[in-house]
Amino acid sequence: MSDLTRKTAAELAELMTSGQASSVEITQAHLDRIAAVDGAVHAFLHVDTEGALAQAKAVDDKRTAAKKSGEQLSPLAGVPLALKDVLTQEGVPTTAGSKILEGWKPPYDSTVVKRLKAAGIVILGKTNMDEFAMGSSTENSAYGTTHNPWDLARIPGGSGGGSSAAISAYEAPLAIGTDTGGSIRQPGAFTGTVGVKPTYGGTSRYGLIALASSLDTPGPCARTTLDAALLHEAIAGYDPMDSTSINQPVPAVVEAARNGDVAGLRIGVVKELGGEGYQSGVEARFHEAVELLTKLGAEVVEVSCPHFEYALPAYYLILPSEASSNLAKFDAMRYGLRVGDDGTNSAETVTSLTREAGFGAEVKRRIILGTHALSSGYYDAYYGQAQKVRTLIARDFAKAYEQVDVLVSPATPTTAFAIGDRIDDPIAMYKNDLCTIPSNLAGNAAASFPCGLADEDGLPVGFHVMAPVMRDDLLYKVGAALESALAEQWGGVLMTKAPELEVTR
Amino acid sequence: MTADVLEINDALTQYDPVLGLEVHVELNTKSKMFCGCPTEFGAPPNTQTCPVCLGLPGALPVVNAKAVESAIKIGLALNCEIAEWCRFARKNYFYPDMPKNFQTSQYDEPIAFNGWTEVVVDGETYRIEIERAHMEEDTGKSTHVGGATGRIHGASHSLVDYNRAGIPLIEIVTKTIEVPPAKAAAVARAYVSMLRDLLFALGVSDVRMDQGSLRCDANVSLKPHGSTVLGTRTETKNVNSFRSVERAVTYEITRQAAVLSSGGKVLQETRHWHEDTGITTSGREKSDADDYRYFPEPDLVPVAPSREWVEELRATLPEAPSLRRVRLQEDWGFTDLEMRDVINGNALEPIVATIELGVTPAAAKKWWLGELARSANESGQDLDALGVGPAEVAEVQKLVDDGTLNDKLARQVFEGLLAGEGTPAEIIEKRGLALVSDDSALLEAIDRAIAANPDVVEKVNSGKPAAAGALIGAVMKDMRGQADAAKVRQLLNEKLGI
Questions:
Q1: Where does the record place the Asn/Gln amidotransferase domain (chain B) (predicted)?
Q2: Which of B58, B158, B300 has its CB closest to that of A206?
């Protein structure tokens, strides 16, 4: 039943509820698909075949028992998922894409994993990512680049390229990503899939190996808006283990995804996110999508967010500053890699040798940047100033949301680029996240939805929606409206346009 | 060759000491500062840890509300202002016993600031200004193995116990303390001792210096008489008894004076205190360029104690120590001089506790000052490190009250207690100390005394009853002191018909 991998999560759940397929069958189908295509895609760093099948069997048993007792299973019970390797899962290798954590098996579950397990969602394995989520292409992974299923010579985006590629390659119907500056949305855009960055504090960071604590947000990746919403609902909500978690009910994301009605919704097109530097095919698809929403009854206006142009430099001060401190714990003393411990070297030397060998170039670059930005005498000019920019960006958003319900832009200035294309040009690489970073700095909700293929390269384009804090439901409203309108043109979700991958056995 | 140290009096004729004291208090909350791990002292290494206090990747801190409450109480008791809104900050530096390689502390936004307190030395009251009291977490504890000194230098390897990592700490920092030079060291000691009593009364800490739950770092600098320019300071770390505080400050004054008077420069550095030799040695050089790259802790939300809560806590504070001393002195009927001895002997809290166990103030004072404080002083220990507490004192006094012991025998019991010979009952048993209450044994001794001192009996019979005192003395001697003198007098009087 290889077509099980082509089903959406919602469809798979229905098949299980109606008894037409078991979780073990569905999980096995996806494990087979991984075995067949992941050699070419390299979306996974670790496939937990045994654990996934055991989890699937447990869900099937529970379902059998529930038939007698009348107990309700969670909506996604038995559906498989790919987990970004930055979230801890007890007993399963977790590397964050870094050599320095090679071989580490966390002794605890992250809150996201706890909730996935509680919902009966089957975790297939851990997906590839840029080292410590620093990057926009997965080329910074210490374990090799992930390939974009739409064109294997191209990058899938990053840092969560593995998660988006996994769902785009039908290796999993669902995946978890984390978004610090666009690491869910940009790979979503590049792989023709849905990627949602919930409101900061809407999903728990406990067990998320921190890149930048004030920005990191776990969120769902899926091939459809509804699937993303179902997963969002499963993982979101207050967590007393995360002080920055918001103690409020989860926004009604599933309901919004089911009723994508944008009539009367006020949509603001951000003036500053477009024009020079944006690929023409990206702009064309974006504007078509805006027109489509207008036809569906949305009121569209142009909105100016003048401080967004400072978002990128501010982000590249705040992120490295926090990262330089967050990564200090990797000192070879308690877990992970240890280099040079030959009985003669001091602890300091061992730490130093381990960090030299265990961290990649981009990680070192950001540690040095952050260390400098926090140094006495520079703090005010760099970190302090960046925090002020952050406040100004939040004000831009607040002002915009007085006029409109949501803001929109292209998710990325370009489509997926070729492997190796930008790896030696950090600034060009950083510019990928121009549209996505402001939402992280302000902490509000944002998502990328597929909106077509660029004429010049035939690659997916992402439509970026931004919504106020704890109004994640508005994202899904817009996404669902767009998805159903476009599906009429395409005869299904955009993913149906993706080329078939060569299957190896 | 110049002397390593000057005589203290010589030092103080040339220089004025300026002090600053940083006291770390481990709070006695049931769980750690940022996680639910227990805080009990002395558990096997690394058994009180979790992903949070081990700083495992992905783990996040959550503030212990009880620790914030304790911090506010301490701030209020030190007459501080309490911040309406403050944040934690990360203090970044590498050390193997610090799991995250940053300490979650407070930097420019302490929970409590701008306070003051008072200490009494030799009857004089000195005001100490408090700069701040802030919350932070303790580090793990390193044991350096294989070296001669127990320090990292020369060690073959180190063991780290993370049980202590994450224990809530309050750091209390004074402003510069300038008191009459001759009083500086005693004021430093009195301050730490006062803090101990205050923190004990607040119930926020075990305040056991011997277990490290109260640790003092002493900053000392000298300036020439009349100068207003502060000298270079040293920071002597982890001075762990009241007496050591005084000794370490005195030592640093005499050492720095020797350096300065020979034309040298005092290095800005941390120094280690050596309890056995009474000196400090150079530790880590510290410069103003030490850069901890503080920034607000992004994993925690700000602490914003409501004014209502602060006032609720203020209402729970025990009496201010200075007022309490006045009240206790009145209640106990002690003279100023007696009260001063109590304070200087650091015996206030033990005496309070002993009286609470039913002992009269006079008796409590007698044992604590006369026996225990004296002994502590002789052996160079702090009173609370003797191993004899209010319960033992009350037990001994009870034995005196019921006639089992007299004061002289009681002293021998204390001697036994201090030597660790067991409980009072065991010591009495072992040393054979109980009073002889058997009348026939006393009467026999009285007969022997009468027989041996016919001249005294003669005097008594000739109308000088006061002469009987010599007979009582003889009986007591015969009984090796183990008789109740009043009883002997009564029996003797009966015998002699007076």
A1: 349-496
A2: B58
Nearest CA in chain B to A204: B60
- Judge: B291–A331 Cβ closer than 8 Å, yes or no: no
| B298 contacts A107? CB cut-off 8 A | no
Q: Are the Cβ atoms of B300 and A243 closer than 8 angstroms?
A: yes
Residue B95 tokens read as: 């050390």
Quick one: pLDDT band at residue B428, thresholds 50, 70, 90? confident
- Check whether B2 has a pLDDT greater than 60: no
Out of B289, B295, B300, the one facing A321 most closely (by C-beta) is B295
Tens digit of each residue's pLDDT (9 = 90 or more) over B81-134: 999 999 999 999 998 899 999 999 999 999 999 999 999 888 788 999 999 999
Residues of A with CB under 8 A from a CB of B: 87-88, 94, 96, 101, 104, 106-108, 110, 205-210, 212-214, 240-244, 321-322, 324-325, 328-331, 333-335, 347-348, 351, 371, 374-376, 379, 383
Distance from CA of A393 to the nearest CA of B (A): 18
B150 confidence band (pLDDT: 50, 70, 90)? low
* HEC sequence for B323-346: HHHHHHHHHHCCCHHHHHHHHHCC
Kindly list the domain boundaries of chain A, sorted by start residue.
2-309+390-497
What is the least distance, in Å, from the CA of A86 to any CA of chain B?
A: 8
ipTM attached to this prediction = 0.95
Which CATH code is given to the segment(s) A2-309+390-497? Answer: 3.90.1300.10
Is the CB of residue B213 less than 8 Å from the CB of residue B206?
yes
Q: What band does B1 get if pLDDT is binned at 50, 70 and 90?
A: very low
Task: With CB atoms and an 8 Å threshold, state whether A376 touches B293.
Answer: yes
**Chain A residues whose beta carbon lies within 8 Å of the beta carbon of residue B99:** 329, 334
Least CA distance to A319: which residue of chain B?
A: B298
Q: How many CA atoms lie within 13 A of A297 on its CB side?
A: 9
Within 8 A of A351 by CB-CB distance, chain B residues are 94
Task: List, in order of start, the domains of chain B with CATH numbers.
Answer: 8-311 (no CATH), 320-431 (no CATH), 439-496 (1.10.10.410)
Residue A1: per-residue pLDDT: 42
Closest CA to A481 of A261, A248, A250, A224: A261
pLDDT at A425: 85
Nearest to B60 among A241, A329, A331 (CB): A241
Other C-beta atoms closer than 10 Å to the C-beta of B328 total 18
Q: How many CB atoms lie within 10 A of CB B306?
A: 9
Query: How confident is the model over A140-165, as pLDDT tens digits?
Result: 999 999 999 999 999 999 999 999 99
In this predicted structure, the answer to whether residue B497 has a pLDDT above a threshold of 80 is no
Q: What is the dihedral of CA B374, B378, B379, B381, to 10 degrees?
A: 50
